[in-house]
């Protein structure tokens, strides 16, 4: 039971679902550009390594 329900802010026991979608911070965009610069586009593992780094970077939020 949610506190929203206990304090009568809603009639649903699960409460209100809030969805937080932060805007990309400028430093994150700079980091993304830096990662793009670091990899050789001709490398076969280029895309997988970049995606791994991007996922790791997103996990820091």
TrEMBL record:
Protein name (database record): Toxin-antitoxin system, antitoxin component, Xre family
